[in-house]
Amino acid sequence: MWTEPDVMVIGGGLAGAEAAWQLAQRGHKVSLVEMKPVAMSPAHQTPLLCELVCSNSLRSDEPVAGAGLLKQELRRAGSMVIDAADAHAVPAGSALAVERFGFGRAVTTRLALHPNVRIERRVVDDLPAKTPTIIATGPLTGGGLATKVRELFGGDRLFFYDAIAPIVAADSIDPEHSFRASRWGKGDDEGGDYINCPLDKTLYYEFVREIAAARKISAQGFEEMRFFEGCLPIEVMVRRGEDVLRHGPMRPVGLDDPKTGRWPYALIQLRPENQYLTAYNLVGFQTRMAYPEQKRIFSMVPALANAEFLRFGSIHRNTFVDSPNILGDQMQLLAQPNLRFAGLITGVEGYVESCAMGLLAALFTDANLRGKTLEAPPETTAFGGLFNHIHRPRARKEKFEPTNINFGLMPGLGYKAKKKERKKLIADRAFEDFTPWVQSVLPVSAS
Ligand SMILES: Cc1cc2nc3c(=O)[nH]c(=O)nc-3n(C[C@H](O)[C@H](O)[C@H](O)COP(=O)(O)OP(=O)(O)OC[C@H]3O[C@@H](n4cnc5c(N)ncnc54)[C@H](O)[C@@H]3O)c2cc1C
Fold first, then answer.
1. 44 in contact with ligand 1, CB cutoff 6 A
2. 420, 431, 310, 440: which is closest to 380 by C-alpha?
3. How far is the CA of 332 from the centre of ligand 1 (A)?
4. What per-residue confidence (pLDDT) applies to 57?
5. Distance CA 154, CA 361 (A)
6. Atom 30, ligand 1: residue with shortest CA distance
7. 343 CB under 6 A from ligand 1?
8. CATH 3.30.70.590, applies to 7-160+318-446
9. What is the mean pLDDT of the chain?
10. What's the burial of 263, exposed, middle or buried (CB within 10 Å: 0-12/13-18/19+)?
11. Closest to 392 in 3D by CA, of 384, 240, 371
12. What integer is the mean pLDDT of 312-337?
């Protein structure tokens, strides 16, 4: 048995389990260090690796949905986690849902039996100094490592509840009831491409009342509700007064509605979510209202009456690093290139996305160990879209927010196509572009 690993992977969740497997399959000796059951996060309940802490669904399995497309790419890349999920699937319509214990046992067994993997059950309290390491400790990073990561890479938002705002598809925003303008008509750096969705006085107060009364997702018992003051959910603002939104994210000042030549009573601003202008987020509209409530209440705004939500707002405790500023193009930590982050902690959301970022971090590590540089996945693929999200440098004012996989992360088609066919065409293109990229990185036996 070997003593010194080639690579250490910290955290045996969705990302860490996948990363350890991929590296082991490529001949590297891997120490997979998992703190369970020595220490358990408030959400984890079993000693199994790859534990699904909440839902047992890995979401849609159809390529015309973001999560489905990403899973298709993961399968093509030889993902062990998705393979185990397929083997333990339970009927769930077009979604891939799993029997979670069978799934966790399968992943744990496969890793435990792999000759290149050693599973160590202990809490990691510090960053390793020399060994190439992937840190995949997830949203509930524990031990001294949590403090270390926060101090060095997380800024003051680590451990706060993270609220995210909904995202809507650009072509579902009603142009008749919205207008493009930046505040005070300022140039692009002030957001000349904002789409503004006005509300009159009566509608504004009705809207605020509905937000106040809406069903909210409550925090898990173990979580203490402490919000980041600079990123308050709208329902918290509404609780502070019915005009708070009108003076906050819904303030109309400096925004002339071309229909009236005046500022509306209130408005929702939509900001492009990507460089392709196919998706827009509701600026300042982070919320923990239940999804059906979000759809119902936001549809009261005339411009959003038929909005297609690519992502709903949500809120949960989160631990993520400032990836665009601290990670290089091989997912390496710029300040200490033998370290990489992977999984949810890089600023992606969801089981499948975390798994994908574990796989990608392993590919970058493998290339590095062989003295090579790996080209990033094409931007037209789901992998590429997620990678660009965590890697793309941002303007100083643009906040880095975690994302799940959605079609807004990939470029539009660049030609006209019927709306119904667009996602299928983007998905086909993604798979076509992904195949040659992934073939060059598959382990010899799998290619
Ligand atoms: C309460 C809650 C509910 C969620 N519900 C969902 C959901 O329904 N659907 C969904 O898609 N996503 C959900 N998520 C997000 C989910 O956590 C991620 O999608 C996914 O689990 C992240 O994968 P990961 O590998 O990055 O982290 P994890 O799966 O959390 O794995 C991290 C692993 O690292 C270990 N670890 C942590 N610190 C240390 C340390 N210092 N030393 C050694 N080991 C350590 C942990 O024990 C854990 O096993 C939820 C998150 C939370 C907190």
1. yes
2. 431
3. 21
4. 85
5. 19
6. 138
7. yes
8. no
9. 89
10. middle
11. 384
12. 87
Supply 234's token pair: 């709208």
Rounded to an integer, what distance in angstroms lies between the CA atom of residue 147 and that of residue 206?
Answer: 44
Where along the chain do its domains lie? 7-160+318-446, 163-315
Give nearest CA residue, ligand 1 atom 14. 350
- The better pLDDT of the pair 229, 148 is held by 148
Q: Which of these ranges, 99-113, 234-248, 363-377, 430-444, has the smallest mean pLDDT?
A: 430-444
Question: Model confidence at 419, in pLDDT bands (50, 70, 90)?
Answer: confident
* Ligand 1 pocket mutation pick from 140, 311, 317, 390 by most atoms within 8 angstroms of CB: 140
Nearest to 81 by CA among 106, 45, 53: 106
Q: Is the CB of 404 under 6 A from ligand 1?
A: no
Query: Is the per-residue pLDDT at 282 higher than 90?
Result: yes
Query: Which strand ranges, in their side-by-side order, compose the sheet holding 57-60?
Result: 57-60, 95-98, 89-90
Order across the sheet with 279-282: list the strands. 179-180, 195-199, 266-272, 279-282, 167-169, 309-311
Q: Which residues of 199-234 are buried (b: 16+ CB within 10 A; e: fewer)?
A: beeebbbebbebbeebeeeeeeeeeeeebeeebbbb
CA 123 to ligand 1: nearest atom: 42
Cα gap 112→106, rounded to integer Å: 10
Pocket test for ligand 1, best of 351, 357, 386, 403 (most atoms within 8 A of CB): 351
Confidence (pLDDT) at 230 = 58
Candidate of 8, 9, 14, 127 to mutate for ligand 1, largest count of ligand atoms within 8 Å of Cβ: 14
The rounded distance, in Å, linking the Cα atoms of 129 and 151 is 17
Q: Which of 10, 108, 137 to mutate to test the pocket of ligand 1 (most atoms within 8 A of CB)?
A: 137
Annotation: CATH topology of 163-315: Elongation Factor Tu (Ef-tu); domain 3 (2.40.30)
pLDDT at 188: 47
Ligand 1 atom index nearest CA of 13: 31
The strands making up 336-341's β-sheet, listed across from edge to edge, are 117-121, 30-34, 7-10, 133-135, 336-341, 332-333
Question: What single string gives the DSSP state of each residue in 384-423?
Answer: HHHHHHHHS---TTSPP--B---GGGS---SS---HHHHH
Q: Determine the pLDDT at residue 402.
A: 82
